[in-house]
Amino acid sequence: MARSWISFLSDYGLDDACVGVCHGVIARHAPDARVIDISHAVLPQDVEHGAVMLAGAVGYLPRGIHLTLVEPLGTDGRYTRGIAVRTSDGSIFVAPDNGLASLAWEMLGGLIEVREIADRELWLPMPTAVFRGRDVYAPVAARLAAGLPLGEVGPRLDPASVVQLRPRACSVDDDHVHGEVVDIDHFGNLALNITRTDLEAVGITLGDPVEVRIAGRTLILRFTHTYGEVAVGHIAVCEDSLRRIMIAVNCGRAVDALRVHRRAAIVIAHAPREPRSRSVASTGSLPVSTHV
Known about the structure:
Blueprint: E1 5-10, H1 18-29, E2 34-39, H2 47-58, E3 65-69, E4 82-87, E5 92-96, H3 102-107, E6 111-116, H4 132-145, E7 171-172, E8 176-184, E9 190-195, H5 196-201, E10 209-214, E11 217-222, E12 235-239, E13 244-249, H6 254-258, E14 265-270
Parallel strand pairs: 1-2, 1-3, 3-5
Antiparallel strand pairs: 4-5, 4-6, 7-8, 8-9, 8-14, 9-13, 10-11, 10-14, 12-13
């Protein structure tokens, strides 16, 4: 298979030359490869955030090489080993062995071959200890895109030995769902590890008023198809483009209105029948309603 596509996700940001330098290394070794930048805004060293982001994107990418770089130091002060993983659809993930790519490769049918990135002849000369994306991963990804057989990357590994990330699932109870914020997008929307199926399991359907408990606040909102169904500046519970439940503000930013962060706990339940006191989240002049 021609592997002319390389997707690229990292926590490098765009404030310096790291991403551009990796592009340059790829261009030197695979000048005909086309690179898709998925995102470089993964939270620094947050493997789970990168894994969730990649899993949400990989189904829309062409087959090819997926260069995925979020690599915190281990507890022993060392980086983990690098791996190249071939999936059943023919794609190859080039990533550290910390679970970063595991959710995505499962979405592509699971891994069928794993190689350790161990052949130093494929790396840049005199690799540094602090920029393995440039010195190790980018040149290997480029060589694979240019046709290097996977077996030449390094020794075969037992698939059972690689790290598999197990994200925390929501908890569905009799009349409410416990979950958490798994992502906060550019628009300030809060994506949850809760789906519409989870809400329907406790009897919540579109149009229902719901009670949302998050960051010490109790909000009475409505479960709508889109955030556009509530007034400007008001909060809605709806689905995002990946079919996850999200908390959004029409023409506003839920993350600012509610002052929460990724991994913040949330509970969604049926709204109580009787009126009760409600906290009000505010973003200064932006009128954020806690009422349906």
